[in-house]
Amino acid sequence: MGGKDLKATVEKHDRHRVAVTVEVEAERFDAALDRAFRKVVQKVTVPGFRKGRVPRPIFEKRMGLGLLFDEALDELLPEAYAEAVKETGIEPVERPEIEVVQIDKHAPLIFRAIVTVKPEVTWPEGAERLKLQKIIRPVKEEDIEARLMEMREKVAVLETLEEGTVEYGDILTIDFEGFVDGKPIEGGKGERETLEIGSGRFLPDFESALVGKTVGETHEIEVTFPENYQSDALSGKTAQFRVTIHDRKTKRYPALDDDFARDVSEYETLAELRDAIRKEIEAEREKEAEEALRSEAVRRFAERVEVDLPDVMVHEEAHEMVHELEYALKQQGIPMALYYQVIQKDERMLIDEYREAATRRLRERLALEALADRVGIEIGDDEIEADIDKVSKAWNRSAEETRKILEGQGLLALLMRDVRFRKVVDWLLEHAEIETTRADVDETASPTEAADAAAKTGAADSAGADGDGGGEAAHNI
């Protein structure tokens, strides 16, 4: 259906919405009324007639046309609206408000749909041509040492200490129970708990109070809860804890030598292991820099586009971000209700907090979509299959089964969008001027702050250099 039996026109309604007037030809609407009658007549009772056997004229005279109109509209409006959206090329971002303008037998059905549509994205000429810095953090000796310490930690051996008193770094097995004003603290009791002194797992006062204590005895210690403690009932309160120390252990680490290298790796010497670790970290830093570069390219381009975002889109995006958080917490076994209780906020407040991030994410997505359309970025079946294959390996399923799952959950379209976005970011980088800089910058800094810091480092290095000119240009990222 559609085409010749439906006409649709669009006019601006207000800042973000359009009004779509749809006219469905009389013949099509009458056919919908016929189907409606055959369905409704089975449900009504008219004296003198068996159910389902009431002639149409008598039904209409006794029951009126309202039931038929309602049934026909339930069937026809969704499909006619979908056809009108396709015919006019609009991109709705919410459910429409529909008003029936004309409805009668043997006459065209006319309705009006008012709906918010995806906004137009524009940008000044040349705004997609970016100047970027790819900042690679150099590998230092302390980075290699930290990685070696992680490896030592994995093979450390716990050794029971029979003599002496508790020291920082000791691992204790304890029972404890806390009291405030002589009353037990809710949740303030534990048995056979493992605690490493200095780990910060318990309150600092609690851990430090056990230093110097002996094993095999019960000790009374006093702990003051911070003023900003998560429980209002305990904030700023002084508590007494009864703690029994059952045993005390310490970690014994292997020496950093060739034997250690052979035990924890495929390498024969510690020097070879260090070299391998350096190369591993360098590869990680390269990947990290590449990901940061891609994010910065998207952010910079999105800042240059002009787009008037409808409030409903921002709200829905923020709402989606809350759902993403809920899913992430669920994976960790944390109920959303508990999270709201801890942060002392509700869903509405969280959505409001996410509005700024949602606005930024929307701008970036719409900017990439618009650029992909303008430069003709398309994706082939082989590219989609390659990504499905990656997902199937991660899920340990066949590619065919994975595709069915993705389609069933509505995720295949998102996967296709991600592939297209990846290609349009590739396009941005291919057409950008990229300077590669090696700089020791703050890992927590934003890309802009990192770039500024790198620029300052580069300027300082250039001032003391022999004049070979700054950073290496990298155009094939």
Brief digest:
With 477 residues, the protein is of the alpha+beta class. The protein has helices at residues 26-40, 56-63, 66-88, 141-155, 204-210, 258-264, 270-304, 311-331, 336-343, 347-375, 381-395, 399-408, 412-430, 447-463, and strands at 6-12, 17-24, 97-102, 109-116, 131-136, 157-160, 171-180, 183-196, 218-224, 238-252, 433-438, 472-473.
Describe this structure in words.
The chain is an alpha+beta fold and about 475 residues long. The chain folds into 3 domains: about 5-115, Alpha-Beta Plaits; about 120-155 and about 255-310 and about 375-475, no CATH class; about 155-250, Chitinase A, domain 3. It has helices at about 25-40, 55-65, 65-90, 140-155, 205-210, 260-265, 270-305, 310-330, 335-345, 345-375, 380-395, 400-410, 410-430, 445-465, and strands at about 5-10, 15-25, 95-100, 110-115, 130-135, 155-160, 170-180, 185-195, 220-225, 240-250, 435-440, 470-475. The strands form 3 sheets. Strands 6, 7, 8, 9 and 10 form a 5-stranded antiparallel β-sheet that branches. The protein has a 4-stranded antiparallel β-sheet with strand order 1-2-4-3. A 3-stranded mixed β-sheet has the order 5-11-12. Helix 8 packs across helix 10.
